[in-house]
Amino acid sequence: MEIDFEWNRQRLLKEIAADARRTEAYTGRAAFGERVMAAMGRVPREAFVSHGQRRDAYLNRPLPIGHGQTISQPYIVALMTDLLDLRAEDRVLEIGTGCGYQTAVLAELAAAVYTVEVIPALQQAAEARLAELGYANIHFRCGDGWAGWPEEAPFDAIIVTAAPPELPPALPPQLAVGGRLLVPIGRQDRSQFLTRFVKNPDGTVTEEAGLPVAFVPLVGGG
Known about the structure:
seven-stranded mixed sheet; globular; 6 helices; two-stranded antiparallel ribbon; alpha/beta; Rossmann fold; about 25% strand
């Protein structure tokens, strides 16, 4: 039987909105911005999972993508994107391309996305997939995300889609003044918290801890 992806996508948007209301106490946001929700509605999540998982593409949960990695829960993708407060002219650094789903959502909202993936097979597959979907504002690098992408800094926003035990020290210097950095911090065997940093004019960052989360560990940093 043919899968009605559009119907599933609209149902998922309603679930994300309900989750946003339930988690307001942690995130400070009872609803996500219209631009973010519209982007979530445009990106075809079924294109980012294996053929055998397409029926589950719009379940509001993570799914395996191989190499010990996952495609994030759609609610978490929407939340992290919303917390970046992206403007149409922004330049964004993403650490952890994975299958490219979060990358596509960012590309819907920002002028340019610079995305780094440490696993060559995932980076190559994501680059091919996003090109096939027509995204032309994404720049790819295969390498250690702990180092960021200093040659292209400063960035208006930085998002890390896997969990380091602490904030990678190379990232705050690559953030523009007023820029937002979002990263899930913590070890897998301990509590992780989605943490937001904002760059101050004096070069320091203000830290805001939020929602408890569970991410795969950020590879690299050696």
